[in-house]
Design brief:
single chain, alpha/beta, 16% strand
Length: 279
């Protein structure tokens, strides 16, 4: 049934309230923020890779790559920069940040190299970077660099395949700490880096950005209806709100943030997410 203008306006208002609560650590918001914004990608990579002069030549979000058998994976962000190939993944759940996932992503980049050379001598230098909400390795470091080494000597083998985990809980006064702070901000005015703040402001505080984010949430709702996930759950919550809640949870927004946006107990939101198979 087609909504009236008043109903559409009310729906848009509810969506925009949800948008206000989103942060860059919520992967779908981050990919939308980094879409067509290589300067944002460049800032993040310069900090996390420790290369102040790094230049991003091109970047894409939700980039699909396939292996030799035709099986595909989708990267949150894929970037080419100065002879290096980089994959960035935003991961709020510990379950999705495993080292074998990082290894797999690295192998997919290798498998898609157009000219690897007879013995792989032309393979590009690659980076797989996970930005995690929690401290994945639980040692308190801002960054964890994972490299192959010779166990007997401790010597690092320079195969140029790098894996980096960024600790989302880190809040030091250095560049990494300031970046992690920005990834958890809901307001552009509270962010340290102007490039990121400007992009967040565009999506949250301009008419064009609001329209873009409303369209994103509409797509969430359509996807949920197509998959039938929203049917029969959370008695007492109307269909529209239920679709919005599930859509936000699926996008990576935490249950507490969703509960605030919808005015529901966090336990009820969590239960709904589990019933729908998104938590």
């Amino acid at each position: 049934m087609e909504l009236t203008e008043e109903q559409q306006a009310e729906r848009r208002k509810r969506i925009l309230e949800k948008v206000k609560m989103l942060r860059l650590i919520d992967d779908n918001f981050m990919t939308k923020a980094f879409e067509d914004s290589p300067e944002c990608v460049e800032l993040v990579l310069r900090i996390l890779m420790g290369k102040d002069d790094l230049k991003v030549l091109s970047s894409q979000v939700q980039y699909e790559v396939k292996n030799l058998q035709g099986q595909g994976v989708r990267f949150d962000v894929h970037a080419l920069c100065d002879g290096k190939e980089v994959n960035i993944e935003i991961q709020r759940s510990d379950k999705g940040s495993g080292i074998k996932r990082a290894r797999r992503n690295s192998s997919y980049m290798d498998a898609n190299c157009e000219d690897a050379g007879e013995y792989g001598e032309n393979l590009p230098e690659t980076y797989v970077i996970f930005i995690t909400e929690n401290d994945k390795w639980k040692h308190g470091y801002p960054l964890y660099h994972i490299e192959r080494c010779i166990l007997e000597t401790g010597e690092v083998v320079k195969d140029e395949a790098h894996i980096i985990y960024a600790n989302g809980t880190y809040r030091g006064e250095d560049s990494v700490g300031k970046l992690m702070h920005d990834f958890f901000c809901t307001k552009a005015d509270e962010m340290n880096y102007g490039v990121l703040a400007q992009r967040v402001r565009q999506l949250k505080e301009t008419e064009k950005g609001e329209t873009t984010m409303c369209r994103v949430f509409e797509e969430f709702g359509k996807q949920e209806r197509a998959e039938g996930r929203a049917e029969g759950h959370a008695e007492g919550i109307e269909q529209g709100r239920m679709e919005g809640i599930i859509g936000m949870l699926r996008a990576g927004v935490d249950s507490k943030t969703v509960s605030v946006g919808f005015g529901l107990p966090v336990e009820e939101v969590t239960a709904l997410g589990k019933q729908a198979g998104v938590l």
